[in-house]
Design brief:
Pfam families: DUF2397 (PF09660). By secondary structure, the protein is an alpha+beta fold. It folds into four domains: 108 residues, Winged helix-like DNA-binding domain superfamily/Winged helix DNA-binding domain (Arc Repressor Mutant, subunit A); 168 residues, no CATH class; 31 residues; 106 residues, no CATH class. It is 59% helix and 8% strand. The longest helix has 38 residues.
């Protein structure tokens, strides 16, 4: 192993748990500003105390790997024999401390759950408003500018990192297929409420942040970045060379760094014509997760009702393969399951039909099959000629585009017809046209499918995220009748509230 990486050796050594416990003792001591430790100090700080001789061997090995440094311990020498006996004080080396920091960062990244921090959005907007006030002054306070920019970078970094971790863990949750149905259904309700609140905050606060960013750039945000870079450069230490003022060199480097940070921050909230902002992409990903969660619930409901799916079929088939007594049974199960057999001929012609042999005939005993030289040379039996002319499909594409526009307009009209401004009885919906009635049946089916026994109120969202419905059961025994051109739909009367989420989205964006 390369000598530069030997401090990582204890992570794969046979006594890895002991080595990690010893190194953890030194990390804890450093947090208490204790530099040197004796073997008995290490043993006292370990939860599962090992023998002192074992700890001494571990310390010696860690010194050899470069994680620790050993210095002679002469503080307790009282006799000549004590002086000649090996006694050492141990402390972390630079490389050993770097390894511990890397291991800690690795463990934290694996266990990170992440969160969608709506509070962080409000904090970022507040800091941008304070920067806008400083940008309006002729001589902004350098300390305030620097502290605000540092706080803005830290808050933004925390927001972006947590959002990325949360969406990754959310996708793993969606991919979970063996969860308990009742537990997942309860978790799904809380998670969807959480996502909807964050989406709402991201729409409103994100638009405000984008406007504040544009206002700061009109007031020359580069001047504020230069102020922060110069304040950091004032503490630059003298360099070994005399090529120039070290403060000026540090200022140029710091200004480039602050400009890169600002560009990254701007790209997160401000969209370009061909590059949507990261906030917009995060919002789309969060909204897409809602129908995916509902789809997982639908799969769990199908399993609960006894319906099978492809993954369950393959698991059952895998169990049958594992329980097959002989290899011949495995082959018979394979042919019965997939209908696949060994290839007998590469092509079927009149000549091959005349001399057809059984599919059970081994290749070594079957008569030879003549292959055309053109097939071997070109991969085709037929001679390649002039390619066919490309057919103009513009008329068909235009028809499909018109059909798509008409269907989209009908869907918008249906949502507008079904949307209610307040809770309404089903019996008060009146007459619906066929398109609106189909949309209503889909909403009613989603709501009834999400209803849990014992609950009178259910609230759900359509799979495409365009509409939400809240259904409340009534005990007055009344019947509802909804008239359509094809007939009358009858059923128990219930209280319904339907919201067109696309219209709400448009209102929020215009605001």
């Amino acid at each position: 192993m390369d000598g530069g990486f030997t401090p990582f050796s204890y992570l794969t050594a046979p006594n890895e748990r002991l080595y990690r416990a010893v190194m953890d003792a030194f990390v804890q001591a450093k947090r208490r500003f204790t530099v040197h430790l004796r073997p008995e100090d290490v043993r006292a700080s370990m939860h599962d105390a090992a023998e002192l001789a074992v700890i001494g061997d571990a310390l010696t090995q860690l010194v050899e790997w470069g994680n620790l440094r050993a210095d002679p311990d002469t503080s307790r020498v009282t006799t000549v024999e004590d002086f000649h006996r090996s006694r050492f004080l141990y402390q972390l080396t630079v490389r050993g401390e770097a390894v511990e920091q890397a291991v800690t960062a690795y463990d934290e990244a694996l266990g990170r759950r992440g969160a969608l921090q709506a509070v962080a959005l409000a904090d970022i907007a507040t800091q941008l408003r304070a920067l806008a006030e400083l940008a309006g002054s002729s001589e902004p306070d350098a300390a305030k500018v620097h502290l605000l920019l540092r706080a803005l970078v830290d808050r933004f970094t925390d927001l972006a990192g947590n959002a990325q971790a949360f969406m990754g863990s959310l996708q793993r949750t969606i991919d979970l297929h063996d969860a308990d149905a009742d537990v997942f259904r309860a978790y799904k309700d809380r998670l969807i409420d959480y996502l909807e609140r964050f989406i709402k905050d991201l729409v409103s606060t994100g638009a405000e942040i984008a406007a504040l960013v544009a206002g700061l750039e009109r007031r020359d945000v580069g001047a504020l970045l230069s102020v922060a870079a110069w304040r950091e450069a004032e503490d630059a230490a003298p360099g070994a060379s005399e090529d120039g003022d070290p403060r000026q060199v540090e200022f140029e480097r710091g200004r480039r760094l602050w400009q890169e940070r600002w560009q990254g921050f701007r790209a997160w909230f401000v969209s370009e014509p061909h590059h949507p902002s990261q906030a917009k992409l995060l919002r789309a990903q969060a909204r897409a997760a809602i129908p995916q969660l509902l789809q997982v619930v639908a799969v769990l409901n199908e399993r609960r009702s006894g319906r099978s799916d492809r993954s369950a079929d393959f698991r059952t088939l895998a169990k049958w393969f594992a329980e097959a007594p002989t290899e011949d049974d495995l082959h018979r199960l394979w042919r019965a399951s997939f209908g696949l057999s060994g290839a007998r001929h590469l092509s079927v012609t009149e000549e091959s039909l005349d001399g057809a042999v059984s599919a059970l005939t081994p290749w070594a005993e079957a008569p030879p099959l003549l292959i055309s030289p053109r097939l071997r040379r070109t991969g085709s039996y037929e001679r390649r000629g002039k390619p066919s002319r490309v057919i103009d499909r513009s008329a068909e594409r235009g028809y499909l585009a018109d059909l798509a526009r008409r269907e989209a307009a009908e869907a918008v009209a249906a949502r507008e017809a079904l949307a209610t401004s307040h809770p309404t009885r089903l019996s008060d919906l009146g007459e619906l046209d066929p398109v609106a009635f189909r949309c209503f049946l889909a909403l009613l089916g989603d709501a009834l499918g999400a209803r849990v026994p014992g609950r009178r109120v259910v609230e759900t969202t359509t799979s495409d995220g365009s509409m939400s419905v809240r259904l409340t059961a009534l005990d007055d025994g009344r019947r509802a009748e909804i008239r359509t051109p094809d007939g009358t739909f009858c059923g128990p009367d219930q209280l319904v509230e339907i919201v067109d989420l696309t219209a709400v989205d448009l209102v929020e964006r215009s605001a």
